[in-house]
């Protein structure tokens, strides 16, 4: 894959999608309260974190993930395949990786479903964007 053929705006837009989905997904009215319980996160611990570092690092890592998807997908796929491949990337690579670590960390199945589900949805939408916006 020729890196110059990539649509960098699509990659950035798909990266931003991971934040938009996360804002909704981890909202206390959706899965946020359950996630906090399953991960052992507390309000105090969350507030004590360096949010610039957290969000900045998360953006860079998400960008790298989406860039890698764009490189794997190429420019020949459409929206439907992009969404499917994004979902499969989220399920087969990311969620299963989270699941393996979670087993060793003795985390709950709910923890795996919440975090893995977030990536399946985020990457399906991101794949749709990459497949649509060449």
TrEMBL record:
The chain crosses the membrane at residues 6-26, 54-73, 85-104, 111-131. Keywords: Membrane, Transmembrane, Transmembrane helix. Pfam families: DUF1761. The keyword Transmembrane helix applies. The keyword Membrane applies. This is DUF1761 domain-containing protein. It comes from Imperialibacter roseus.
């Amino acid at each position: 894959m020729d890196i110059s053929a990539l649509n960098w705006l699509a990659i950035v837009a798909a990266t931003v999608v991971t934040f938009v989905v996360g804002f909704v997904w981890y909202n206390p009215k959706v899965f946020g309260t359950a996630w906090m319980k399953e991960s052992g996160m507390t309000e105090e611990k969350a507030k004590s974190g360096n949010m610039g570092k957290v969000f900045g690092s998360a953006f860079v890592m998400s960008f790298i993930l989406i860039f890698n998807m764009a490189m794997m997908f190429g420019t020949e796929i459409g929206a439907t395949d992009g969404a499917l491949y994004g979902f499969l990337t989220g399920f087969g690579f990311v969620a299963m990786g989270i699941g393996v670590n979670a087993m060793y960390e003795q985390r709950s199945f709910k923890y795996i479903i919440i975090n893995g589900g977030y990536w399946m949805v985020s990457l399906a939408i991101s794949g749709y964007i990459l497949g649509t916006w060449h």
